[in-house]
Amino acid sequence: MADAITRNGADGEGGTGRGTARGAGSAGSGGAGEGIRTFPFPVDLSLGGVGLQIGPMGAGHTWHAEAPLHRVHRIDFHVVMLFSDGPVRHMVDFAEYRATAGDVLWIRPGQVHRFSRADEYRGTVLTMQPGFLPRATVEATGLYRYDLPPLLRPDAAQRDALEAALAQLRREYEDTDTLPLSLHTAVLRHSLTAFLLRLAHLAASSAEAARQQADTTFTLFRDAVEGGFTTNHSVSAYADALGYSRRTLVRAVRAATGETPKGFIDKRVILEAKRLLAHTELPIGRVGAAVGFPDAANFSKFFQLHTGLTPVAFRAELR
After folding, report:
1. Kind and range of the H or E run holding 220
2. Strands across the sheet with 112-115, in order?
3. Which tens digit of pLDDT belongs to each residue from 22-41?
4. Can the peptide bond before residue 283 be classed as cis, meaning omega within 30 degrees of 0?
5. Is 166 within 8 Å of 199 (Cβ atoms)?
6. Region for residue 110 given its phi and psi (left: phi exceeds 0; alpha: psi -120 to 50; beta: otherwise)
7. For residues 71 and 318, is the Cβ–Cβ distance under 8 A?
8. What is the C-alpha to C-alpha distance for residues 108 and 119, in angstroms, rounded to an integer?
9. For the chain, what is the largest distance between any 2 Cα atoms, rounded to a whole number of angstroms?
10. Rounded to two decimals, what is the model's pTM?
């Protein structure tokens, strides 16, 4: 079986330094100036055309010829990397994570990320197309828990169980002859569910994840911000809409994140602004308008206050 995730050795448009992902299909909707370009799951490269790929990390391929991996890029599918060696530095949503042997990196659809030029990527990688699993499984496994950290550190027993489940899934994936395609796909879904349930348990067992899951007030606030940050930056407005006092909201957000509700909102706005600056050619004024700042000057001041760079300087650093 060909490598499922790689980084080739050449610099430039085709690749970066060493180990990343097996190819994706053509770029998704939205050209320069129209929104973030998203690279879709390459169904045509998956064995049997199923919405799943699994294999070793190694050298040879990229997601797509137009997505150089040492630059920030975005994909519309899940990536789970289980490392057998390290350390490896990997950027996800503009935060850098350092993974070592036995660690797991879980990148969800829509998150931007970048591979390290210098580091070797070794281990096993799983990629999965959204929609491959039924909704009940998606909910049970927390596939879209964007509040959870991408980097997970299983203990020895958890790592052994994950490795065994992943190995079984890989055997089923590569066995395309034993069963008809419909049964083969069903078996893959069951094996994948077993692996993801273990992974979800690992994610939820961390102190931070448990705190966030238990705090209903913060969860409701987090979801409201995710749905409204492009137009609403007011803590009082969120508190009123959720039926909480401002003081209750401040307590809940500080307990869950260590920051104020205003700080939480501002971080989400900055993240989206960074994504747009990195992935589009939109004028600065349009980027600001997209995150709730009709006045370009106010947006530039806000962005520089939170990042230390002007939007123009931030974009230039990524080019």
Report:
1. helix 216-228
2. 73-74, 112-115, 88-92, 95-99
3. 333 333 433 444 445 677 78
4. no
5. no
6. left
7. yes
8. 22
9. 63
10. 0.64
